[in-house]
């Protein structure tokens, strides 16, 4: 998809930079107006959004409405309703040394930010961070994924009709255009995509020491033990794997269970697949397609040589791969090397929770970890001894929709987080401010830092620093006595100096 605009990357950034320097986006009323326009954009273009996602990925209407439009709308409404509260300066606690002062934490915009969207959820994963960046007061350059051209064209055409054309600009194009864009200096970069491209984006950001959020992926494991209701497990795991034909960053990537659980799961999964798709999944209007031929060939290649227990149907002409469960998978098999990002679900056999824990911890930290168990001890074992972007117990993918939880990766699965207030915070620099008191008492407390130095002054400063984490009422009497002593000392000194000056007048 070639760039169809008239501005070069440098011109795009210059326009955004000039717009930010006017201070327009710092006006909270302006931000709110833009956010409400974005909400209106969702409402007035719902049908078109369904059409472009069907064109790009053959997504079903329900998937688009619930997993893209409704999530966007819910998050945006929450942002609009909370905006005036979020922009208020916070009041962090004070320490002994600053008892008479005031402390503030201001949320200020970074400036001009770049948002690089993903192709698997091309609207959701581009427009949700955009809303947070607007709320935080930034100017934004939006780069949709060229892999889903209908969605990219939609954003290029529709966003300028609803948002300020100088503060918020859409720049389309492929890898060459993205490379040119990354040569420009941004104040923040938000990227969603593969780990490979994420490394390239991060390297480009390093040139200008630009902070980044990288929403990547990884092989998200599912542990199932024999205490779980296997029928419910099969429904929830297969749904999490099936949505968007497995092209979801938090899709279950592989299952860890023993042979007994595997047999039960395969039997339940067979029934669930028939329930979902009747006899022919390819004819189901609810099953997405692989995004392009390149990814179809990659996924088809992974199936070769695998022991397919369920599914396995493919159609190159339609880019269709049926939801496939494969067994007898070893840790070093090709299918276990990288994130699958498609409707293939391997099962790796382990003997118990400790075996599964060891398997997970030998690999890169995943974006999501799924645990199916009614054994609280084993659940806690995973929670306390693994590291992942997020965890969902007894379900898959549902934690993404909880606006009060941060969503993001760790290690190879990404850095930074967003959703709800976390998005606002991601696009805000937290500026600390100490507002000092100029009164006599405040100056008396401060006087110990001034020369000439003495052991008494040093001891006074040590006491203040010792309790700098906050005011502990346990030491309030000691602090009060110190304060009174300092005041009396100051008063006597002042009185003595005054008397001396009068006697020598």
TrEMBL record:
| Entries under CDD domains matching the protein | ALDH_F3AB
Biological process terms in GO annotation: aldehyde metabolic process
Record-annotated membrane-spanning stretches? 475-493
Q: Which SUPFAM superfamilies match?
A: ALDH-like
InterPro entries this protein is in? Ald_DH/histidinol_DH, Ald_DH_C, Ald_DH_CS_GLU, Ald_DH_N, Aldehyde_DH_dom, Aldehyde_DH_NAD(P)
Keywords, in A-Z order: Membrane, NAD, Oxidoreductase, Transmembrane, Transmembrane helix
Q: Name one GO molecular function term.
A: aldehyde dehydrogenase (NAD+) activity
| Superkingdom of origin | Eukaryota
Gene Ontology annotations for the cellular component aspect, listed alphabetically: cytoplasm
Q: Where does the Aldehyde dehydrogenase domain start and stop, copy by copy? A: 11-431
List the catalytic residues.
215, 249
What family does the database annotate?
Belongs to the aldehyde dehydrogenase family.
The name on file for this protein is Aldehyde dehydrogenase
């Amino acid at each position: 998809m070639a760039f169809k605009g008239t501005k070069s990357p440098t011109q795009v950034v210059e326009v955004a930079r000039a717009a930010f320097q006017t201070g327009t986006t710092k006006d909270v009323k302006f931000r709110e107006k833009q956010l409400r326009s974005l909400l209106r954009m969702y409402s007035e273009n719902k049908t078109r959004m369904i059409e472009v996602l069907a064109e790009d990925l053959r997504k079903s209407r329900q998937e688009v409405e619930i997993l893209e439009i409704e999530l966007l709308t819910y998050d945006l409404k929450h942002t609009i309703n909370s905006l005036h509260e979020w922009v208020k300066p916070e009041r962090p606690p004070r320490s002994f040394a600053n008892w008479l002062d005031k402390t503030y934490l201001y949320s200020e915009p970074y400036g001009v930010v770049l948002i690089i969207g993903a192709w698997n959820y091309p609207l959701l994963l581009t427009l949700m961070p955009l809303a947070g960046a607007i709320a935080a007061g930034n100017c934004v350059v939006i780069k949709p994924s060229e892999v889903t051209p209908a969605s990219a064209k939609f954003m290029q055409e529709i966003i300028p009709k609803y948002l300020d054309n100088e503060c918020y600009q859409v720049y389309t194009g492929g890898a060459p255009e993205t490379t040119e864009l990354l040569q420009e200096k941004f104040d923040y970069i938000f990227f969603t995509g593969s780990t490979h491209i994420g490394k390239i984006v991060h390297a480009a950001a390093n040139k200008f020491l630009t902070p980044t959020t990288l929403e990547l992926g990884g092989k998200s494991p599912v542990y199932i033990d024999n205490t779980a209701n296997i029928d419910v497990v099969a429904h929830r795991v297969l749904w999490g794997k099936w949505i968007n034909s497995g092209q979801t960053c938090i899709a279950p990537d592989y299952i860890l269970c023993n042979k007994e659980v595997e047999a039960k799961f395969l039997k339940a999964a067979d029934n669930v697949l028939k329930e979902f798709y009747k006899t022919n999944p390819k004819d189901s209007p609810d099953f997405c397609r692989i995004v392009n031929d390149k990814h179809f060939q990659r996924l088809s290649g992974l199936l070769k040589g695998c022991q397919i227990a369920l599914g396995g149907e493919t159609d190159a002409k339609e880019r269709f791969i049926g939801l496939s469960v494969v067994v007898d998978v070893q840790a070093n098999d090709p299918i276990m090397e990288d994130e699958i990002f498609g409707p293939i679900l391997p099962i790796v056999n382990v003997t118990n929770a400790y075996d599964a824990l060891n398997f997970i911890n030998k690999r890169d930290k995943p974006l999501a970890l799924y645990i199916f168990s009614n054994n609280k001890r084993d659940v806690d074992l995973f929670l306390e001894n693994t590291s992942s972007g997020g965890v969902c117990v007894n379900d898959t993918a549902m934690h993404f929709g909880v606006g009060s939880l941060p969503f993001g990766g760790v290690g190879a699965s990404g850095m930074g987080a967003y959703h709800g207030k976390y998005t606002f915070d991601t696009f805000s620099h937290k500026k600390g401010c100490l507002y000092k008191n100029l009164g006599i008492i405040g100056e008396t407390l401060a006087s110990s830092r001034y020369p000439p130095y003495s052991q008494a002054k040093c001891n006074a400063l040590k006491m203040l620093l010792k309790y700098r984490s906050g005011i502990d009422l346990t030491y309030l009497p000691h602090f009060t006595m110190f304060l009174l002593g300092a005041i009396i000392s100051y008063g006597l000194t002042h009185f003595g100096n005054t008397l001396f000056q009068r006697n020598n007048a």
